[in-house]
Amino acid sequence: MIQSVRPHGTGQSEPPDLEALVSAFVSRFASASGKGSGKRPIMIVIAVVIGLVLLWGVLSSWYTVQPEERAVVKRFGAVIGINDPGLHFKIPFGVDTVQFVATERVLKQEFGFRTTGTGEGGRTTYSPQQFEDESLMLTGDLNMIDVEWVVQYRISDPIKFLYRMREPTRTLRDISESVMRRIVGNMLGSEVLTVGRVEIQQKAGEEIQALMDAYDAGIRINTVEMQDVVPPPAVQPAFNEVNEARQERERMINEAQKRVNQEIPNAEGAALRTVAEAEGYATERVNRAEGESARFSAVLAEYQQAPAVTRSRLYLETLNKVLPGIGQVLVVQDGQMSPLPLLDLNRPTPPTAGGDQ
C-alpha cells in the first residue's frame, strides 16, 4: 500500500484496491459456477486469482517520484531510506510502503486571510470571510491593530517532518501566531503601522526558525511577510485623525527646522560681516594714526631746523585748505552803505573775447 502526503491538486490518484476486486470477482464467479459441478471451474477460479495477485504485485512493485518530491520508503513500518525523483521499485504486497513529501516546493501558512485562487488576468482572489481571531492584536501602547501575514517554508527533512511530530504544520501555525503576537505586543502601534514592518518580519522569522529547530520538525522558514497592517474598522476614524495630527506636527517641525536652517546662517553671516568691518575699521584707524604720527614727526624735525619757514608753510597750507570752503569774503568799511565784495571765489569767471577764461 502506498501512502501520499502530496498537496491537493497534483492530478495523481491512488492505485485501485486489487484485494477488493479479486474478492468481488471470486464471489461472482463462484455464484455463477455453483449451479454446475466439477473441478474445472475451481481450477479456473484459482488461475484467475493467481493471475490477479500477480498483476497486483507487478503494478505495486514500482512508483514514480515527481521532481519536487522525495519518497520516504518504509518496510514493515520501519523507514529504510529516502528516494530522489524518478522511477523506483519496491517489494509489493504491502511489504514496502511509500510516502511522498514535497520537499522542493515552497509552502505557506496564511494568517488573517485566505487565498481562494487566481481570477481573470492572473489576479489573486481572496476569501471574503474575516479571520479576526488570528489578525487582531494588542500593541505595546494598548492599541488594537489588524495584522495579516504569511509564513513561507520548506520541508528540509522528510523523515523528521513525517515522524518527529504528530502535526508539524499545525505546530508551525501555532508557533507563528504566538511569536507574532508577542513581537507586536512589545512595540508601539505607530511603529507597527509605519517603520517597524521590516524589523517585525526579521525577528519573527528568526524566532520561528529557532523554535522549529528546537522541536526538530524538519522545517526551514524562508520568509515572513506582513501583507496588510491596518487599524480595526471600529477605530479607523480615530486612527486617521491621529495620523493627520502627526503629519501636521511633522510638517510644522519641518517648517521650523527650515526657518532655523535659514536664519542661523544669515545671523552667522551678519556677525562675520560685522566683525570683518570692525577689524577693517580698526586697521584703518591704526594705519591712519601711524601715518599722522609719522607726518607729525617729520614736520617736527623740519620745524626744529627752520622754525620760521615751517610756520609760514603751515600757515599757507592751512589757508589753501580753508579758503575754498569759505565762499564770499566781504570787507566792510565804516561810513559806507553797502558792503564791498572783495573776494568772490565761487563766482564763475566770464569768458574773454578770444574764448579764453
Offer a concise description of the structure.
Strands 6, 9, 10 and 11 form a four-stranded antiparallel beta sheet that branches. The protein has helices at 18-33, 40-59, 132-135, 158-163, 168-185, 189-193, 197-215, 236-305, 307-322; strands at 62-65, 70-75, 78-83, 86-89, 96-101, 107-111, 115-118, 124-126, 136-138, 144-155, 219-230, 328-331, 340-344.
Would you give an account of this structure?
The strands form five sheets. Strands 6, 9, 10 and 11 form a four-stranded antiparallel beta sheet that branches. The chain has helices at 18-33, 40-59, 132-135, 158-163, 168-185, 189-193, 197-215, 236-305, 307-322, and strands spanning 62-65, 70-75, 78-83, 86-89, 96-101, 107-111, 115-118, 124-126, 136-138, 144-155, 219-230, 328-331, 340-344. It is rod-shaped. Helix 1 packs antiparallel against helix 2 (40-59). Mean pLDDT is 80; it is low at 1-13. The protein is an alpha+beta fold. A hairpin with a 5-residue loop joins strand 7 (115-118) and strand 8 (124-126). Among the domains are: 18-101, no CATH class; 107-231, Band 7 domain (Tetrahydropterin Synthase, Chain A, 2-Layer Sandwich), CATH 3.30.479.
